[in-house]
Amino acid sequence: MTESRPRRTAVVSGGGTGIGAASASRLVAAGVEVLLTGRRADRLETAADDLRAQVASAVVHTVVADVSTPEGADTVRDAAQRLLGGVDVVVANAGSPAPSAGDDLESLAESWTATFRGNTLSAVLLVAALDPLLRAPGGRVVVIGSAAASRGNSTASYAAAKGALEAWVRRAANDLGPRGITINVVAPGYTAGTELVAGRISDERHALLVRAVSLERAAEADEIAAVVEFLASEGSSYVTGQTLTADGGLRV
């Protein structure tokens, strides 16, 4: 009698909207049990209900936490231990737009610190917290970066924070590799329907961003999630420490 394989498990931060929700959708469709985390209970529950409606057999959990803080990352680890037992996939998607800074140095420092915490520490703390639960060999960590890290086509603090993710992932690959765990970055370009751009992009800015893309359109969140799905799959077993850019062919 052949034993059935245990259901794979995943933690998706920022899982209530945008790329996080789209990634969770693809994972659930592949039979993965998912724990969604984010700061807003209503968005998480709506996303979880949507996933259950999409896949009758979906197993979806939620936990409210701010993973840019040690306390929030601890909360997610405890929930993952209790609900999942172990973690096969981490999608570190949580991020935030850079707050505007004033003309004084104190305001500039506050803006950069907040941007770094929201976009770099949110991934570093989550992965560090879940490290003891990552199944080895075979664990997959996927970090959502940005094409702005290499192109600089965003605010300076946001581009720098996402660039720091790429440097960290290259180093983290050395630490996780001997255990058979991979870690990679997906760097999206201009992506429609995410909270990073919704209501923040003028029509003129949208047109400018689209003209800069070879495909002459914005990405959809599901297209970025498709890259996440590959890096979370068993088929990506020899890809680690890399940045996979999905920017539609930025011309500049």
Task: Give structural notes.
The protein is an alpha/beta fold and 252 residues long. Helix content is 44%, strand content 14%. Strands 3-2-1-4-5-6-7 form a 7-stranded parallel beta sheet, sandwiched between helices. α2 links the parallel β2 and β3 (60-64). The longest helix has 26 residues, at 105-130. It is globular and about 50 Å long. The termini are far apart.
Q: How many structural domains does the protein architecture include?
A: 1
Within CATH, the superfamily carries the name: NAD(P)-binding Rossmann-like Domain
Largest sheet: 7 strands, parallel
Annotation field: number of helices: 8
CATH fold description: Rossmann fold
What share of residues are in beta strands? 5-15%
Contiguous uncertain segments of 5+ residues: none
Shape: globular
Query: In the CATH classification, which architecture applies?
Result: 3-Layer(aba) Sandwich
Element layout with pairings:
Elements (H helix, E strand, L loop, with lengths): L8 E5 L4 H12 L3 E6 L2 H14 L5 E5 L5 H14 L5 E4 L12 H26 L9 E5 L3 H4 L4 H21 L5 E7 L14 H9 L9 H12 L10 E4 L6
Parallel strand pairs: 1-2, 1-4, 2-3, 4-5, 5-6, 6-7
Question: Which keywords apply here?
Answer:
alpha/beta, seven-stranded parallel beta sheet, 252 residues
